Amino acid sequence: MEILVCVKQVPGTTSVEVDPVTGVLKRDGVDSKMNPYDLFAIETALRIKKKNNAVIKAITMGPPQAKKVIKESFSMGVDEGAIISDRKFGGADVLATSYTLSQGIKKISNPDLIICGKQTTDGDTAQVGSEIAEFLNIPHVTNVTKIIEVKEKSIIVEIDLPTSLEVCEIAYPCLITVEKDIFQPRLPSFKLKMSTTDREIPIFTLNDFEDKDEKHYGLNGSPTQVKRIFPPTPNTDKNVLRGSSDELSNALLEKIVSFKLI
What we know:
Layout: E1 2-6, E2 9-11, E3 32-34, H1 36-52, E4 55-61, H2 67-76, E5 80-84, H3 94-108, E6 113-117, H4 128-136, E7 140-150, E8 154-160, E9 165-171, E10 174-178, H5 190-195, E11 203-204, H6 245-258
Parallel strand pairs: 1-4, 1-6, 4-5, 5-11, 6-10, 7-10
Antiparallel strand pairs: 2-3, 7-8, 8-9
Helix pairs in contact: 3-4
């Protein structure tokens, strides 16, 4: 069994500025760390490996110094890792990031299971995992809180929905995103850190991809841009709709129309 974990290097502080021209975060000179949610993804992969003799690979997209998070994953027990890095990938939004990662996954791995953290602390969109799965054309589920059973051709998981818990069985290859309460991440091992110091970490660029069209990556491939960042206004309003499928469909359509979304 082969498991791929997506990890990311994020700013280690909330004091990060946004470039007024490109609308992306200014990361130069800012302390960085592994995205906290990715630690839960790594731990999930390691728990599965312990019972199923799996090989775990980690992949990250970022500048060459992002190898720091790959090395950290090695010190936790990950077997292999790679970096997707190219200036042409800079400034990517969720869509372009997901597409770039999907191309990188096709290049370096053929995993049975892809595991992502719920979201990143520098974006909080919680969309990248799902979009990677769509680009790879594989099934996926999000908000996984429990691994119930890992079978030869599928995995059974528990999903945390807004008002209930759902048990779902997904056939490989597939992707899941995990919640932070799924497992307690282990601390990095100094022994593993020392023994993996010289482990090779390949770097892949646009020229290594099957799709080399620059319009699909970075700012060129990003239909959205951040114009400004500000604290959100708390809003706890909600409207629960009940009824038959026809009644719910009509009520939902009326809401969408009233909000002038269509």
